[in-house]
Amino acid sequence: VCSKLTFLYAKKKKVVADEKFGKSLIISMIVAFMIFGMIIAIAPEFAPFFWGDDFAICAPLMTGFAVTVPIWTVGEVIRTQYLLSHSRDREYISTFVVGVAVNAVVNIILIPVYGAIGAVIGHEMTHGFNDQGSQFDKFGNVKNWWTPQDKKDFNARTKVMADFFSGIHALPDL
For residues 16 and 49, is the Cβ–Cβ distance under 8 A? Predict the structure, then answer.
């Protein structure tokens, strides 16, 4: 969508581009609120399943942080479909409500909030080793450093999570 919007804005078709941007934002928000609802619905079952019974207390935290999904979605749609197409993305960094920002291109982590800093740093560091982080080398250059076996192993492990979430129904027949 971003390249199409960039093309439309470059051709001075602002009305059409703005229309497509608006539709994209609406669709993204619908999906974000569905994810938000699913997180709230599964948190009580997911936390003990994934981390163990001692972590059941984390379910309310997951529910509380679920509100970041729609907020983050709005920011990302604006960044990728408006700011990029207007060449205004240079200083923009995705930021969650907790105050953490990660920019893989320049390989930095900004943490203006110091509460639970160990968990925040640990969480953000894992992004360097997931399928998104695999696209950048240690210098921040776009270069996939995973072997085919790494990708296969990653997909096998994430399938466990996909299967778990596929078995949860927030509402009957949904």
Answer: no
The whole-model pTM stands at 0.47
CA distance 74 to 79: 9
Q: Is 114 helix (H, G, I), strand (E, B) or coil?
A: coil
Low-confidence ranges of the chain (pLDDT < 50): 91, 94-99, 104-106
Residue 104: closest CA among 81, 138, 145: 138
Q: Which two tokens stand for residue 66?
A: 């679920």
Provide the token pair at 16.
Answer: 């059409």
What's the token pair of residue 141?
Answer: 């250059």
**How many C-alpha atoms does 131 have within 13 Å on its Cβ side?**
9
Residue 77: count other Cβ atoms within 10 Å of its Cβ. Answer: 19
Which of helix, strand or coil describes residue 80?
A: helix
Pairing type for strands 101-103 and 108-110 reads: antiparallel
